[in-house]
Write a structure and sequence with these properties.
Length: 382
């Protein structure tokens, strides 16, 4: 969040805010603890297997400590992190395959000042700003996949510790609220590599998802939970086989719940395969194609085949960026007549959004005559 501050001493000044952001958390006293464990006390898992973890806070003294969900409000605050020895790859929130969409927009509009069309998927939270007093009972966050935080690439034995700085002793009325740093006891995990298991798991999960989750109707609550759990287990496998299943089951539609396939495709360890599979998938009759998907494919193509996202000036790649975007817009346009009725309208909107953009060149991305022919093929007059 950004604030506008005018009077030093009355409200938090920019200097104070900057110092708060750079501050280090304070070591927590002994009477407050962070607990980290693996559900079911299991310690042996396959590469790509879902690892269910639980974490919670306990305090010996009721009403002394406050949990702050927006940890960046605290001086030195941060959310839960898990680190291991030997080191393990941390999962990034920003997909490696979609680097800096703002830079891509600058490439498209390099011949003028102004902004072009930008895709992207955002997320929100209606009640993220919550605070809770730690009572004499534990504050538990249920079961969360450790895979959200870490990606084990190689087999071995790992000692993992959870840490967080989202607890404070200072009420929200104070200007600066120091965060307390808590660390859990270590948990030892044994990770094994078993390609036969990975193949069997990918097949079993995909079959289960096809059976109970592929209908047009939103599943009942119990079935929704089963679908979500199955989808999550597929996405964490991160093999070429699981990637193919994710792409096949991604249809771009909102079924009333999030299956995570699009996010998993963007985070895949096999970007070339993901681009190739998604390039074919957007042309299928049952796929609703959004502007975000079109933009992402163009960005992936540019990243894989050029060094456009290094230090070169955006203007150098203006023509290449336009060509890549034009390629995927044309692929979508050629597939529109065959699109199913329930996905065609939104796909047409995405096509028109980009096809009609001029990107400072004095002519649309897709020539007017060509665009009109595409729209006429789906019954739309220019």
């Amino acid at each position: 969040m950004r604030g506008f501050f005018l009077i030093i001493g009355v409200v938090l000044s920019p200097v104070s805010a900057s110092l708060a952001q750079r501050a280090e958390p304070v070591p927590a006293p002994d009477d407050v603890s962070l607990h980290f464990q693996i559900e079911g006390d299991q310690h042996r898992f396959h590469l790509g297997e879902l690892i269910p973890m639980k974490f919670s806070y306990t305090a010996d003294n009721a009403d002394k400590y406050i949990y702050v969900s927006l940890s960046n409000k605290l001086a030195g605050g941060r959310g839960l992190e898990v680190t291991c020895s030997p080191p393990v790859e941390a999962v990034k929130s920003q997909p490696a395959m979609s680097p800096d969409p703002d830079r891509f927009t600058k490439m498209l509009n390099a011949l003028c000042t102004g902004s072009g069309v930008g895709g992207g998927i955002g997320s929100g939270c209606g009640d993220c700003d919550s605070e809770y007093l730690l009572k004499d009972m534990e504050l538990s966050f249920g079961t969360i996949p450790l895979n959200r935080y870490l990606r084990f690439r190689t087999p071995g034995t790992y000692s993992c510790v959870a840490s967080a700085a989202d607890i404070t002793m200072v009420s929200r009325d104070e200007k600066i609220r120091p965060a307390l740093l808590l660390k859990s006891k270590p948990v030892v995990l044994s990770i094994i590599d078993d390609p036969a298991w990975a193949h069997s798991a990918a097949t079993a999960y995909a079959d289960a998802y096809d059976k109970i989750c592929r209908g047009d109707d939103t599943p009942e609550h119990r079935t929704t939970l089963e679908c979500f759990d199955t989808a999550v287990r597929i996405t964490y496998l991160d093999t070429r086989e699981s990637l193919a299943a994710e792409v096949r089951m991604f249809d771009g539609r909102n079924h009333g719940w999030e299956n995570g396939f699009w996010d998993a495709v963007q985070h895949s360890s096999y970007p070339e395969d993901a681009l190739r599979l998604m390039t074919h998938r957007i042309q299928d009759a049952d796929v609703q194609v959004s502007t975000a998907v079109l933009e992402s494919l163009a960005i992936w193509d540019l990243k894989i085949n050029t060094d456009a996202f290094q230090n070169a000036r955006p203007a150098i790649f203006h023509s290449t960026a336009l060509d890549d975007l034009r390629k995927y817009v044309r692929l979508l346009g050629s597939s529109l007549p065959a699109k199913n009725r329930d996905v065609r309208l939104e796909s047409i909107k995405s096509y028109r959004t980009y096809a009609e953009q001029e990107y400072c060149e004095g002519q649309p991305l897709i020539p007017t005559e060509e665009r009109n022919q595409v729209l006429a093929s789906v019954g739309i007059r220019p």
